[in-house]
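Worked example 3 (structure in, sequence out).
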């Protein structure tokens, strides 16, 4: 593996790990806010904490591809289509394994480590123009 490919892999691992942790942190904060809103107004019915829950869901779904793309662009890497699309799909599948934060801290970090390593390998692939 050449040094530029190794560097791109390291950038992919770092950006994937940072995106996973940042998104999970935002989602956990929104879920905690929703729980606190429901506890503060138990008679509020189904609407108590609804706004916070929706914000958490939007962040959970949309923040990873945005952070993957922005992180790689800030590190000077282009052509990250596969990392962004497949990383987003992998993130959605990963979150079916951790519903409502029921996974332990060790399981969560293991999932994030696997996500980061696969993100590094996805970062290695770059589209090339067809030869004529």
């Amino acid at each position: 593996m050449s040094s530029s490919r190794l560097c791109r892999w390291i950038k992919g691992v770092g950006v994937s790990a940072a995106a996973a942790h940042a998104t999970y942190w935002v989602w956990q904060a929104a879920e905690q806010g929703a729980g606190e809103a429901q506890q503060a107004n138990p008679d509020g019915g189904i609407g108590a904490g609804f706004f916070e829950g929706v914000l958490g869901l939007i962040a959970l779904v949309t923040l990873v591809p945005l952070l993957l793309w922005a992180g790689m662009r800030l590190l000077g890497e282009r052509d990250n289509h596969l990392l962004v699309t497949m990383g987003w799909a992998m993130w959605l599948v990963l979150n079916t394994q951790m519903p409502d934060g029921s996974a332990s801290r060790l399981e969560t970090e293991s999932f994030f480590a696997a996500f980061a390593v696969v993100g590094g390998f996805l970062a290695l692939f770059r589209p090339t123009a067809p030869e004529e």
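Notes: Helices lie at 3-40, 50-74, 81-96, 105-124. The longest helix spans residues 3-40.
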